[in-house]
Amino acid sequence: MNALSSSDWPVQIFKGAPDAEVLGSVRALAAAAEEADGNPPLSEQTWVNLRASDPDQLLVLAAYANEEKSDPARATALAGVAVVNFPAHGEDAGVLELVVHPEYRNQGVGTGLAAELQEHAELPALRAWSHGDHEGAAKLAGRFGFTPVRELWRMRLTHAQQLPDVRLPEGVSIRAFVPGRDEQDWLAANAAAFAHHPEQGGQTLADLEARMAEPWFDPEGFLLAVDDHDGALLGFHWTKIHPGTGSHPAIGEVYVVGVTPKAQGTGLGKALTVAGIKHLHAKGQQAIMLYVDGDNAPAVALYRKLGFTRWDTDVMYAPAAASGGRNEG
């Protein structure tokens, strides 16, 4: 941990997870931003890393409000935070997320954090997410030479409707995930299903166990499609229920759907998707969301047929020189 820098918005720097007090302040800041914006400002992977302690995986810059600008020790409130998740799972760039408390926006906090970040990380080696693609984020990205390279849509099903009666392929059945038994089989199936998507396909046992330790984890909502003959895992639909926060009610999520190469083209993906939605409906979740890359036309078409509509967009930015001025999708 570094001491507070001397500036209008003093910045404290942590290599690895910050201490419990700072982490509590980050949670409060993120909650205030989500209540104001309707979007969680930090990703799930960021929260997983913030609870870890690997200094090679995480860099945190915390900017504080200070009544006495000349006395950094008088810092009283967390005004903004920038978190860099360094490359993992075969990715080629670190990922930045930056959020400013609603009370301190348009006062230079974000610019100060980004400028300070240049002293501690190579900006050309970073990608940055804007959850909700806010105007302020777009302006800040442009100021530092970042351009959009990827759109991740959030789609939402807002009411229960008649879902299609989709049959499983012959000889396949669905059961719930069994903790302590299915971890390795799921990791192998996930790696095969997402061989060309290192962010998801590179999940490790530690990554899986971190999510299983989350309060939202429910093995009944982790649906596995298995071969009736030999029990081989052919696909899965991991659902999630986000608890309500502030004025925002709870909402279900199509968290991740995967089908192994052996079972692709059999209709299993659609059957698993529908089965997961029905499970969430049975749990009382009428509103259901999911994430999908905006240029994944087949997936978008499937979700639209099931009643999902585009709700919001997360945008990834990269330095213009690194992106080559094109959408990498």
From TrEMBL:
Query: Where in the numbering of this chain does the N-acetyltransferase domain appear?
Result: 18-164, 172-329
What are the EC numbers?
2.3.1.189
Q: Does the keyword Transferase apply?
A: yes
For this UniProt record, the keywords arranged alphabetically read as follows: Acyltransferase, Repeat, Transferase
Q: Where does 1D-myo-inositol 2-(L-cysteinylamino)-2-deoxy-alpha-D-glucopyranoside bind?
A: 44, 199, 240, 253, 291
Question: Source organism's superkingdom?
Answer: Bacteria
Q: Give the CDD domains listed for this entry.
A: NAT_SF (cd04301)
Reactions the enzyme catalyzes: 1D-myo-inositol 2-(L-cysteinylamino)-2-deoxy-alpha-D-glucopyranoside + acetyl-CoA = mycothiol + CoA + H(+)
Pfam families, per database record: Acetyltransf_1
Q: Does the keyword Isomerase apply?
A: no
InterPro entries xref list: Acyl_CoA_acyltransferase (IPR016181), GNAT_dom (IPR000182), MshD_Acetyltransferase (IPR050276), Mycothiol_AcTrfase (IPR017813)
Where along this sequence does the record place binding of acetyl-CoA 2?
257-259, 264-270
Q: Where does acetyl-CoA 1 bind?
A: 98-100
Tell me the function of this protein: Catalyzes the transfer of acetyl from acetyl-CoA to desacetylmycothiol (Cys-GlcN-Ins) to form mycothiol.
Quaternary structure and interacting proteins, as annotated: Monomer.
Family the UniProt entry places it in: Belongs to the acetyltransferase family. MshD subfamily.
Q: Supply the name of the protein.
A: Mycothiol acetyltransferase
Native organism is: Arthrobacter mangrovi
